[in-house]
Amino acid sequence: MIQRADFATEDGEYTMDLFQNFNVSNLESGSPVRGLMRKPDFQRETNHWTPAQVTTFIASFLDNELIPSLILWKSSSYIFVIDGGHRLSALRAWIEDDYGDGAISQVFYGGEISDDQKRLAKRTRAMVEARIGRFSKLKSIVGSTNSGSELDLKRAHLLFTRGLNLQWVQGTASVAETSFFKINSQGTPLDDTEELLLRNRKKPIAVGARAILRAGGGHKYWSSFSADAQKSVEAAARQLFEVLFDPEVSQPIKTLDLPLGGSVSPLDALSLLIEFLSIADSTQTLTKGIAGYDDDPDGSTTVAVLQNALSVAKRITGNSNGSLGLHPAVYFYNERGKHSRFLFLGMVLLISRKIKDNDGGFFGKFVLARERMEKFLIENKSLIGILLQNMSKQTRVSKMRDLYSFLIENFADNKTVKVEEAIEHLGARGRILDITTAANNTVFSDETKSALFVKRALDSAIKCNICHGLLDPAKSVSYDHVTPVREGGTGDVSNGDLVHPYCNQSVKC
Ligand SMILES: [Zn+2]
């Protein structure tokens, strides 16, 4: 709710006589102070406040309860919020009646507001209105003595007279930045992902991940790039958003049209994106990770990172020629319909290395192995999940890649694969029992409902008539002429079939 600005280019300005109290009218539209206010560009991406926290905060403001000081820093052109961003945003949301779904948010998110965010906004609004009422209503009775309940009049009286206590950070931009990290590592701690993003915010992976999360809209962390680089970043981010997070999924699952990257809730999605971009950009031997890059002043590395991610994504899904059209329910979700980042990233690692190696033969083997590999994955998903959980986080992605690779090599060679042999690639030896505890209550949980749906829907899903792997026609399908056009084949239903794009362009002929 407060605009961002690039903090590092600002000079600090120390003035003796800065205002010492912050009045709520400073947040109303048209206020000059509001016009000056900015969040530092490293301010948190995500909003951790729940509807209840927002409501409680506004109520404590109006009921004259103690509120910690806001901490601000004045540069030569703006006022930056160092601490108190959530508090000010909560008040602003209330003043504007925009909890993430209103006119200001529509513009900020470029019209792309997720259903999750809309639901949360609706809940927050309902809670605030039940406990406090609208800002405009309280404002309209300011100065009156009899046109509201006793509580409303008391709150209205305080609304514009209360001043929030302020502290000013004095010094340069780097002093202000240090204060920010100190303050935010106490109190509500920064999540690991947030801290990783903030500390590396000028690096290609961080800029790229944030761009994708907002489908190329939202705050332009890339605004210092050249005009061409900006356009490329936005276009690639929009495409990657669609590939990874469309359509939104709701529980229990009732469709197999699942997003490849799982939920778009900011923290999950950002941490997945950081790994996805690093892996897709890795060389044969080295995955640099977010901190391994240099800052990217002109955008060239960010554009390259996003392009590499797109070329991997286009092998996994979509309608372009090389697309395997992998079915997310088979490859990226567990048997209960929950997204698994390790299944997903393991495949991303495998495919990105094969692209870098220019290993065209690999994709041919994939097609040969596909039907039996998919059967294996579906039958052993819960076992794979248990084994992944029991190994260290750092090794899960590469072990999963090894398992995929083993399955492809062996099934392509027509070999029989024993479960015990395969799971050795996940670090397990001997016979493993898949112990899934049976539910002992009578109600079907959402998880059980999703599991039932996934099982039944996969049983009857359409298969590609070339490789006999499952098709995900919503995202990836090719319409195949059974008798090729050059041999007189027509465009009639009787001569058509649904196949994977890769199968259509490479295997036939
Ligand atoms: Zn196929």
Radius of gyration: 27 Å
Topology, number of strands: 8
Oligomer: single chain
* Helix/strand order: EEHEHEEHHHHHEHHHHHHHHHHHHEEH
Q: What's the pLDDT, averaged over the residues? A: 89
Largest sheet descriptor:
6 strands, mixed
Dominant shape: elongated
Strand % is 5-15%
Continuous helix count: 20
- Attached small molecules: zinc ion
Report strand order across the widest sheet.
1-3-5-4-6-2
Measured between the Cα atoms of the first and last residue, the distance is 57 Å
* Helix/sheet category: alpha/beta
Residue share in helix: 40-55%
Model regions low in confidence, pLDDT < 50 over at least 5 residues: none
Give a structural overview.
The protein is an alpha/beta fold and 509 residues long. Among the domains are: 4-190, no CATH class; 192-316, no CATH class. The chain is 48% helix and 7% strand. It has helices at residues 32-36, 51-62, 85-96, 103-108, 115-131, 135-140, 150-159, 173-185, 192-199, 204-213, 227-245, 266-280, 300-316, 328-331, 341-356, 360-389, 393-412, 419-423, 446-459, 501-507; strands spanning 4-5, 21-23, 37-40, 70-74, 79-83, 163-169, 478-481, 496-499. The protein has a six-stranded mixed beta sheet, with helices on both faces. Strands 7-8 form a two-stranded antiparallel ribbon. A hairpin with a 4-residue loop joins strand 4 (70-74) and strand 5 (79-83). The longest helix has 30 residues, at 360-389. It is elongated. The protein starts with a strand and ends with a helix. The model has no long low-confidence stretch (mean pLDDT 89). The site of zinc ion has 7 residues, from loops. Zinc ion binds next to loops.
